[in-house]
Design goal:
Length: about 325
């Protein structure tokens, strides 16, 4: 299972039940609960977890030569009774993320922020990760070899329908934007890669409303808050449709959701539409990119709307 294959599926608000697979491969009915109510419950569950668990902060403060720079969580009890809870860490921040009309708390532990570039909500990232439930059960793990994730989905035509391809759950997207990549790497004689030891390291604690909510894969119970530890190695500025406009700039309404911006109303969001205004002239031909890479958004008729978004300006 991989995160980029487990996208949330939008369902209309009037549905009372959803179908979910049980362990035997059958279908069971799942009650679709009120998002605000679940958000309150999940936040309390996350606060309880953060108050009763610690991470191996001492290893990061005084790393040994063979330290692998991976986060380990454990319960504050027994011989660990004197450990500092995560909730007291000065490396923990809270982000308020609005999703499906509900503000929800996302907790991000920035063990090491990372010295390289940080991604926008629409960029591509090269990361390792491990996902677990609040019980400690690991449901997905890739801590050895980094993988690419598009933080926003691309849209294509599949079976004559506009279909989202790729993308990640909202909490993973919002959390990863807090971490910078490595400043570089070297390739060893055995072709292994050694990253500069300044890449971002941390953890994301998310409510189910920013994860899979009731539409969970089989390995995750419905309405489960999740914990992801991550390491961020590379960030690429994405241009999903290769039209010369970086994908984050296709978010015209500034809501950090590029899937809702469709200037010409053709069903393809701008980040996936090579002709954003639908005037027959490709977007790339209605902008200027200088030799040094500077992007110039020309406005031929000086009406305040760049040519690539203005259907009244075309060739």
């Amino acid at each position: 299972m991989r995160i980029n294959k487990l996208m949330l599926v939008g369902l209309t608000a009037f549905l009372a039940f959803a179908c979910n697979n049980d362990d035997d491969g059958g279908l069971v009915q799942v009650e679709v609960r009120d998002r605000t109510e679940v958000a309150v419950e999940d936040d309390q569950a996350l606060l309880d977890y953060l108050s009763t668990h610690f991470y191996n902060y001492e290893d990061f403060e005084n790393p040994s030569e063979d330290f692998n720079y991976q986060i380990v969580f454990d319960t504050i009890a027994g011989e660990n009774a004197d450990k500092e809870p995560i909730i007291n860490s000065d490396k923990l921040i809270t982000k308020i993320v609005n999703h499906e009309g509900v503000d929800q708390n996302l907790y991000v532990l920035k063990v090491r922020e990372g010295a390289g570039a940080k991604p926008t909500f629409a960029d591509s990232t090269f990361v390792t990760y491990e996902g677990e439930l609040l019980t400690g059960t690991v449901f997905d793990s890739n801590l050895r070899n980094p993988v690419w994730f598009n933080l926003s989905p691309y849209f294509g035509i599949v079976d004559n329908r506009v279909t989202p391809l790729g993308g990640v759950i909202k909490g993973f997207q919002a959390g990863l934007t807090e971490f910078g990549a490595a400043t570089g790497f070297q390739v060893n004689a055995d072709n292994s890669v050694e990253w500069n030891n300044d890449y971002g390291i941390g953890a994301i604690f998310m409510p189910s409303g920013l994860a899979y909510y009731f539409n969970s894969p089989e390995t995750i119970p419905v309405y489960s808050p999740l914990v992801f530890q991550i390491s961020s190695y590379v960030v690429n500025q994405a241009d999903h449709d290769n039209d010369g406009i970086p994908s984050f700039m296709e978010d015209l309404d500034g809501d950090n959701d590029v899937t809702s911006d469709d200037t010409d109303g053709d069903g393809l969001p701008n980040l996936s539409d090579p002709d954003d205004d639908g005037d027959g002239t490709p977007t790339r031909d209605e902008i200027e990119i200088t030799e040094d890479g500077t992007l110039i958004l020309t406005d031929s008729d000086n009406d305040g709307t760049p040519d690539y978004l203005d259907p009244d300006v075309f060739q």
